[in-house]
Amino acid sequence: MNHNDILRRLRYALRLDDTATIAIFGLVDYDMEKDYLSMLMKKEDEPGFMLCRDKILSLFLDALIIQKRGKQEGAEPVVLKGSERLTNNDILRKIRIAMSYRDDDMLAILKLANFRLSKGELNAFFRKPEHRNYKECGDQVVRNLLKGMVVKYRPDSAKTTIMPVTKAPKPRKPAQKPVKKPQPAPANEETNSVWGKVKPK
Q1: Is residue 51 within 8 Å of residue 8, measured between CB atoms?
Q2: Which of 58, 127, 130, 143 is the most exposed place for a label (fewest CB within 10 A)?
Q3: What is the DSSP track for 132-171?
Q4: How confident is the model at residue 77 (pLDDT cuts 50, 70, 90)?
Q5: In 3D, which of 154, 146, 153 has the Cα closest to residue 61?
Q6: Contact status, residue 1 vs residue 145, Cβ threshold 8 Å
Q7: pTM (2 decimals)?
Q8: Coil, helix or strand for 198?
Q9: 122 contacts 106 by C-beta, under 8 angstroms
């Protein structure tokens, strides 16, 4: 799961079109071009795909925090340098802040994606790396959180009904009536003829 997937799924869950997404980037003074955004939204096997850098996803999440909660005076978004990386723990934390999620909210959203997690396991993702209870967040947790957000905010699109494939019954051939063979007349009975009744000899 790369940053393109996260950006794409987050946009989908929150119903953010290109105009709204570009406006959100503007909240952190980043001039996102529509053509560049289009390349980020492509899948890896599509022509024109461009990998989303850690810096871009971090800026978007920081801008989402401002869009959802307002800008705090004196707090400036941290622009990641080329060597700095955005971890899954960072992504989880920024989504939590932007959406004002509490522990129970996040656990409930994960449950919508049929993903079970205890409160202790969740809190371990928000510890500092040097804390003894710190735990690295895997792709599975982020993926299921975004999946749960789609179920929560876009319930209609999250429901997919797959009809079972049934084979059409083969047409039955019409039953053929048995052909009755003409029975020879008994020897002791008169036989009908165009010449009249003829007695057997």
Answers
A1: no
A2: 130
A3: TT--PPPHHHHHHHHHHHHHHH-HHHH----PPP-PPPPP
A4: confident
A5: 146
A6: no
A7: 0.76
A8: strand
A9: yes
Given pLDDT bands bounded at 50, 70 and 90, which one contains residue 27? very high
Dist. CA 30–CA 28, nearest whole Å: 6
Q: Which residues contact 41 (CB under 8 A, 6 or more apart)?
A: 4, 7, 8, 11
Q: What are 124-142's pLDDT values in tens digits?
A: 999 999 999 999 999 999 9
**35-64 residue pLDDT tens:** 999 999 999 999 999 999 999 999 999 999
Tokens linked to 167:
């084979």
Residue of 96, 117, 111, 121 whose CA lies nearest to 147: 111
What distance in Å separates the CA atoms of residue 46 and residue 35, rounded to the nearest whole number? 15
Give the pLDDT confidence score for residue 102 in this predicted structure. 97
Q: What one-character DSSP code corresponds to residue 188? A: T
Mean pLDDT throughout 153-176?
56
Q: Residue ranges per domain, the chain?
A: 3-71+81-157
